[in-house]
Amino acid sequence: MLEVDDVSPDKCTFTFAITYSSQEQSSASGEAVHAVAVKTSYVSDLYVANSLVNLYSEFRKMSCSRKLFDEMPLRDAVSWTNLMKGYVKQGQLTTAQELFDEMPHRNEVSWVVIIAGYVKVGRYHDAIELFNSMLQSSSNRPNEAALVLVLSACTHIGAVSQGRWIHAYIDKHKFPMSINITNALIDMYCKCGILHSAREVFSRTPARDLLTWSTLISGLALHGRGHDALKLFDQMLSSGFHPDSIAVLGILNGCSHAGLVEEGCSIFYNMSQTWGITPEIEHYGCLIDLLGRAGQLQKALAIIIKMPLEPDIVMWRSLLSACRNHRNIELGERILHQIALLDLKKQGGGHLLVSNMYATFGRWDKMAQLRCRAREESEMKKPGWSCIEVDGEVHEFVADDRLHPRIAEIRHKLDDVLREAGMKGGYVSNTGQVLFDLSEEDRVQAVQWHSEKLAVAFGLMSMDVGCSIRIVKSLRICEDCHSAMKAISGVFEKEIVVRDRSRFHTFREGKCSCMDYW
């Protein structure tokens, strides 16, 4: 940056040049401009310094960003926010939170940055608490970004009461119903199990984009409403929308969960021929899942062998699960051999997956070998959790939970519930995949304290008689818990809605909406 024809750069020139360097991801040019700013003393200008703090935060050079911030003679909310944004990008939320707490004045962007940080790392409860604090702040009103973020947090943990309250807040304060807010609301209602509310938001939205259609299609798929998802997909096509890979993935999931083999295969083959979409590994995974659930195991295996992509552990797990469900031990053994060729440790959960398969087939010696190998290589399965919302507060449980303040009472309630479910609903503990070297009593105990069972017991003792129990689970529901939920729903005349990582299960009158097709 040199003087040309006696024209010297001013603060606007520096700010523009630094911002351009940041946008173009050019660290070298940004540092060159910084050097000239120091030479010309413009580095002490508030706007120039703010741009430099943001530049180094973008490039994750936090020591430089912090040094500039500390040396600034004058700071504003932008200065603090730019530095905080860098720590959020680095995942240093503790430092970011400390900065946020120290800020003399906050603006909307400051709140959005810190809330986004917590959402990014999965600390959804903290994100919701921060949003509530923002509402209590007299100086700041949530903007669209904050609303979308907190709705996302509600979606992940199933905080439907909070989500509904935010929807009411949007209506009350007459926020423009932007496409981003609309899509976030539809997603929240779908994934919190309130499908009719999702459809209401959709029907009241005249200006829909492709994501609006895809979100509701995926929501219907999660609930096993494959026929409804297909109907909506056809409406989307009739409305002139060209599907993308996300829309196709959603409808393929819908076909898979509903057992619509012919329709799903047709959509898969139309991807490239009609819509010009190259199938990705996720689309092949849906096709394999679709065929596997329908018992077309050999056809699914043939597709895996011929597909142009390298099959991943998820795909093999899907087919392996189908072999277990359809009791095809011979093919299951072949697939186990294929999985053994993979680097199971890097694939995550591979040893545990295969050992569970051996347990299902009664191959206890093989199962023991793999369990020992998993322990030797420190392959740890990430602990699952289940959340339930009661009176606007989200309670989280893990298997064999001992931290909830009412856990003794909950365990006692669960004992009574399962006893009733066994006596009146025919529930019998399924301990087929529990370690074989435990006594039968210990094996029953091992499955009794699963997180979703604890959540159901807490719901039964805490919620009104007419209220549905809604649970969000981070992992796939196991066979034993699935059987227990069916029995409990019938014996206690209670609707229980469980969203696991794969789909929704609505238990009512001793039956599940998945019709045991999961």
UniProtKB/TrEMBL annotation:
PPR repeat boundaries on the chain: 76-110, 209-243
Where are the bilayer-spanning segments?
none
Q: Which PROSITE patterns match?
A: PPR
- Residues in domain DYW? 426-518
Show the InterPro entries listed in the entry: DYW_dom, E2_motif, E_motif, PPR_At4g14850-like_plant, PPR_rpt, TPR-like_helical_dom_sf
Q: Name one GO molecular function term.
A: RNA binding
Q: Name one GO biological process term.
A: RNA modification
Q: Which UniProt keywords apply?
A: Repeat
Q: Which PANTHER family match?
A: OS07G0636900 PROTEIN, PENTATRICOPEPTIDE REPEAT-CONTAINING PROTEIN
Name of the protein: DYW domain-containing protein
